[in-house]
Amino acid sequence: METQTNAGDPKGDLERLRSENEKLRRELEETRRDSTRYLQNVAHQLTAPLNAIKWNIEAIKDEKIPIPRKKNLLSSIYSQGTILVHLIKNFSLMSNLEADHELGQFRDMPERVSPLRLAINLAGDFEPQAAETGKKIEVGIPSLDRVFGNKALLVVKNLVAQALSNLLENAIKYSDTGTTITVTAATGTQGQTTYSGISVVNTGLPILRSEVKTLADRGFRGNAARQKIPAGTGIGLYIANRIMELHEGLIQIKPNGTETRITLFFPDSRVVDPIRSDEE
Q1: What is the CATH number for 256?
Q2: In whole angstroms, what is the distance from residue 199 CA to residue 121 CA?
Q3: What domain range is 210 assigned to?
Q4: Is 41 contained in some domain?
Q5: What DSSP designation does 273 have?
Q6: pLDDT tens string 139-160
């Protein structure tokens, strides 16, 4: 009886290995190019506010500059400092967020946070930056009162503050001069879950409806945004979306012509009674 052995096809195996190796080489090269572009964008994003701060400080040192002008320069320094801190927080958050998602839990304990107080505080932080570019920020207090009442959000405060900051920073960057950015509230449902959220509404660069599904992807930037500001990291909405996922929530992007409403939606399970004074 003859025994058949399967020696395989050496030439075919070699060709497959060469093909796989070439594919890996192309993927590695594309990853290298993406990393280089990303680092260049990060460097640009950090350099711009640092240079602005340096120039403003040099102008303040000039004795010929009148006091009212120096006050404006100080306001600009504060604004650029806010941008810088915001960028650095975003970069440092990325690895932590991925680790939190892998663990399926927060590294910090959630706490009760007032949506209204959070909105007012962050609007105040970003107001100098908005004013410097000819825009205003308003908080829709009646809307927030109507949606949340005296309830609190059970969230990791620093993370949610960063997510809302990302929306405000983008709104300032892409709004038209002379417009008002509004922080308001909204409600919605998905399936059997009811949500309450904080929205940022601005008028400026249009977002294509075809871009909505990918706008929160890491590194993605809309066509109009790339044309107006070529250098950008594309991580603001990505981080906001990851933060909302950790809170069992979602981020909703609703373009309407030149108006865009982006909402951080929290499930009603995270809308809770605030801590009473006797419990603190």
Answers
A1: 3.30.565.10
A2: 15
A3: 110-272
A4: no
A5: P
A6: 999 999 999 999 999 998 888 9
